[in-house]
Amino acid sequence: FKAGGIQAIAAMAYGTESVPKVYKIFGPGNQYVTAAKQLVSLKEVAIDMPAGPSEVEVIADETANPDFIAADFLSQAEHGVDSQAILVTASETIVEPVARAIQEQLDRLPRKEITEKSLAHSRIIVLKDSREVVDFTNQYAPEHLIIQTADYTAIAERIENAGSVFMGPYTPESAGDYASGTNHTLPTNGYAKAYSGVNLDSFIKKITFQEISSDGIRALGSTIQTMAANEHLGAHRNAVTIRLNTI
Q1: Rg of the chain over CA atoms, in angstroms?
Q2: What's the pLDDT tens digit per position in 195-240?
Q3: Are 226 and 232 in contact (CB under 8 A)?
Q4: 144 assigned to active site
Q5: pLDDT digits (tens, 9 = 90+) for 152-204
Q6: Annotated active-site residue in 144, 157, 231, 236
C-alpha cells in the first residue's frame, strides 16, 4: 500500500476498507509519526520502538578529517527541520575547521533551507577528555553514532547506549541507510537506553510451553503452595493441593 505519515499509522492500526488492521507497526518517521505510533500502541497494536525524528552524534579527535565530519553532520541535518546533529570532541583544535567545512558544504546543498533550520538546534560540544565524551554519549544515547578517532575501536567498546555505531573514517551514516546491511530503523530521543534497532528478533513472537510430571509437581508443589499462600491466593494454592492429594 502506497501510504505514509500519520494517515498510514491510522490505517494500519484500525484498518480501512482497503488496508487490513495489523498486529505490529515497524518503521521510522517524523515527530508526528512517532507520536501516532506511541498513541496507537496504548491499545490497538504493538510497535517496534519510538523512531524519529532522526539524530546523529559524531565523536572525533584531531586525527579526523574535518570535511568528513562536516559531511556526516549535514547528511543528518538535511533529513528535516527537527533533526539534530552533534559533534562531541575533546580536541578543541578541530572545532573551527569543522565549522568552516560545514558552512562551505552547506552552501552547495539542494536542501539548504531545511538543513539550516536543523543546524539551529545542532551543537558542537568540547569536553575535557575521552572519558567525558563516552559518559556524555551513553547519556545522550544517539540514534546514529559515528566515531572518527585514532582509537575508534577502543571508544566503541565503551559505548553502551546507541542505536547503531559507525566506526572509522570511511563509514558514513548514509552507508547504514542504504547499503552496509544494518537496519535503518533505530531508537531516537534517548530510547537507545532501553530499545534495540529493528532486527530479525523484532518480527518474532515467542510462546513458552511446559509440562509437569507427577514427580515434578511433588517437587515443586510445596514451593507453589507457600508462595500462593503468602499472596493470599487460595485458589492458586488449591490448584496444587488438589493434585498432590490425588497422587
Answers
A1: 25
A2: 999 999 999 999 999 999 999 999 999 999 999 999 999 999 999 9
A3: no
A4: yes
A5: 999 999 999 999 999 999 999 999 999 999 988 999 999 999 999 999 999 99
A6: 144
Active-site residue (options: 78, 143, 173, 184)? 143
Interhelix angle 112-119/66-77, rounded to 10 degrees, is: 100
Provide the greatest CA pair distance for the chain. Answer: 84
Overall pTM > 0.70: yes
